[in-house]
Write a structure and sequence with these properties.
Helix 3 runs parallel beside helix 4. The protein has a 3-stranded antiparallel β-sheet with strand order 1-4-7, with helices on one face. The chain has a two-stranded antiparallel ribbon with strand order 2-3. A two-stranded antiparallel sheet has the order 5-6. It has 6 helices and 7 strands. Helix content is 34%, strand content 8%. The radius of gyration is 21 Å and the shape is globular. It starts with a strand and ends in a 16-residue tail after the last helix.
Length: 255
């Protein structure tokens, strides 16, 4: 998901990750409480004094780190309550979406976040597995949208997988890896509720290879207008090297 930054902040990344333009690398954390020094406040103050006089890139990175510690400590100390009656339920996915909403609404300069929801590689017995996953995804996204409220107007959520599934069921009542898949885009700009696709159908002569959906839209062509909406000056040739963009004329994703 992408949110327009309001002020610079440090980066973090794991299942839940946030990224900003202020720092050149990502710092892996599992939760807000994990991003800390183990020596306590006195130890941190000693380190700040030690590195306070440093100049150049080394000093700047040290100050960024201490600034990150302070901001995350402030967030961690607050008892966050989702707004508008949003209920994320239990589970890791809900907790990570809740943290994503907290970071966005804290105005610490978040530009991008990643949240993972696993379990979709259903080679075996897909039917009893897929429905609970879809409910978890739908309920989590609905809670996130409700929680953000007006902040959704500056936020875009993209749901995608690294590959699709085969159309036909395999001998183990599951589906194997396939080519074509689907992407979901959620935002607060009023342009939702549409299906944008060059849909070839599911007849055998429309499938490719051993029975895959044909890829008719490159995922990068969906992401490019979204990225440019949130970062108008970004160089897409550096983000997606060697890719020749094919604009989704009717999509309106960058409007």
């Amino acid at each position: 998901m992408l949110a327009r930054a309001t002020r610079p902040a440090p980066t973090s990344r794991r299942r839940i990750g946030w990224s900003t333009a202020a720092t050149p690398a990502a710092t892996a954390i599992q939760s807000l409480g994990d991003f800390s020094f183990s020596g306590g406040d006195a130890f941190v103050r000693s380190l700040e004094q030690l590195y306070g006089g440093q100049t150049g890139v080394f000093g700047a990175r040290a100050r960024d780190t201490f600034d990150a510690l302070g901001r995350i400590r402030d967030l961690h100390a607050k008892d966050y309550s989702p707004a508008n009656g949003a209920d994320y339920g239990g589970g890791q996915f809900g907790r990570e979406l809740r943290l994503a909403a907290q970071l966005i609404k804290a105005h610490v300069g978040v530009e991008a976040l990643t949240v993972d929801l696993g379990g979709w590689d259903t080679h075996l017995s897909q039917a009893p597995l897929i429905a609970p996953l879809l409910r978890r995804l739908a309920n989590g996204l609905a809670a996130f949208r409700r929680d953000l409220g007006a902040a959704m107007r500056q936020t875009t959520v993209v749901v995608m997988s690294e590959f699709g599934r085969r159309v036909s069921e395999n001998s183990a009542f599951g589906t194997d890896h396939g080519r074509g898949g689907a992407m979901l885009v959620l935002g607060g700009d009023g342009a939702e509720g549409r299906v944008i696709a060059d849909w070839p159908g599911l007849k055998r002569d429309a499938l490719v290879g051993p029975g895959d959906l044909a890829v008719t839209t490159d995922y990068r062509d969906v992401l490019i207008p979204i990225l440019l909406r949130h970062a108008p000056g970004a160089d897409m040739a550096r983000v997606f090297p060697g890719h020749e963009a094919k604009p989704l004329g009717q999509a309106g994703l960058g409007d």
